[in-house]
Specification:
The chain is an alpha/beta fold. The protein is about 45% helix and about 20% strand. Keywords: Hydrolase, Lipid degradation, Lipid metabolism.
Length: about 300
């Protein structure tokens, strides 16, 4: 049983889309299971129904307003560099309203339901073994994996949304009395979960470079420094997930193929730029092609 696993990584998910396109269209790989965390959870349902063209259009055209109903960021450009800074008005308004997050991501929930249809949900349940998304149950301090086979259409769309909620910048969700957020807070790339669910071969796309090629630039104000800190912590979770995944693969005689980004794509994956995401999608395709040029 073959599984495709995609890590979290915000806008860098475009790179994973390119890798998946090459593997599925050129290498003709057919996957029984798809597992994703955060941005990976947005990708896997569309890949499961082989809607790569539709996924490319959705992903490379996403903008801040497609994600945030209340955005804590202002996107700016200085020369060729694109970056985000705090939207003090929106963040202050959130505090006045006694909200616990700097922003709200209800626009993303609407877009998930708009782009992932009930017909596609039914097609996956009929034709694929499983599609799984990762969420963090903050109330119980644990990671949970939500299978499409155990959820209604509405529930599964909601879990996809929750898997992407990178707090404290996006919404904190409540389900059955428990509070949930981004799956990456507990498991950035669920390789071991794919193996536990029966995968005998795993292709895992890691939306981070294998080694840090250059010194990171830390934030120049408390808000941007917080983003840098969260990025650092998630990098440590991701490395731990990969070590555990490799051990699980070795102990269960599972073939594990890891696809890292060849370089660090961005220091802030909450920037959604059409130009950059189109570039990263092509880089993902080209990188996968290079990896398999001797096959």
């Amino acid at each position: 049983m073959r599984a495709l696993v995609i890590s979290g990584g915000g806008s860098k998910g475009a790179f994973a889309g390119g890798v998946a396109q090459y593997l599925m269209e050129h290498k003709k790989r057919e996957y029984d299971m798809f597992l994703g965390t955060s941005t990976g959870s947005l990708l896997v349902p569309h890949l499961a129904v082989n809607e790569i063209g539709k996924l490319y259009d959705i992903f490379t055209n996403v903008q801040q307003q497609d994600i945030f109903s209340v955005s804590p960021f202002v996107q700016r450009k200085k020369g060729d560099r694109e970056y985000v800074s705090i939207d003090f008005v929106n963040s202050l308004w959130q505090f006045i309203k006694r909200k616990r997050t700097f922003g709200e991501s209800k626009a993303l929930r609407r877009n998930i339901r708009k782009n992932f249809t009930y017909e596609e949900y039914e097609k996956i349940k009929t034709n694929k073994h499983d599609v799984v998304v990762t969420v963090s149950n903050l109330s119980m301090n644990r990671v949970e994996y939500k299978s499409i086979n155990e959820c209604s259409y509405e529930e599964f769309c909601n879990w996809i949304w929750i898997s992407c909620n990178y707090i404290p910048f996006m919404s904190l969700a409540k389900v059955n009395g428990y509070e949930y957020a981004d799956g990456g807070l507990g498991c950035v790339i669920p390789i071991r979960e794919a193996i536990k669910r029966g995968a005998t071969e795993v292709d895992a796309v890691v939306l981070e470079a294998e080694t840090l090629g250059k010194q990171k630039v830390l934030g120049k104000n408390p808000f941007s420094l917080m983003i840098s800190l969260f990025s650092h912590l998630l990098d440590q979770v991701e490395r731990n997930d990969i070590v555990i995944g490799k051990l699980a693969a070795k102990n269960n005689n599972v073939k594990l193929n890891l696809y890292y980004t060849p370089t660090s794509l961005t220091e802030n994956s909450l920037i959604f730029s059409k130009r950059l995401m189109e570039k990263w999608w092509k880089q993902g395709y080209d990188y996968a092609e290079m990896r398999h040029e001797d096959d």
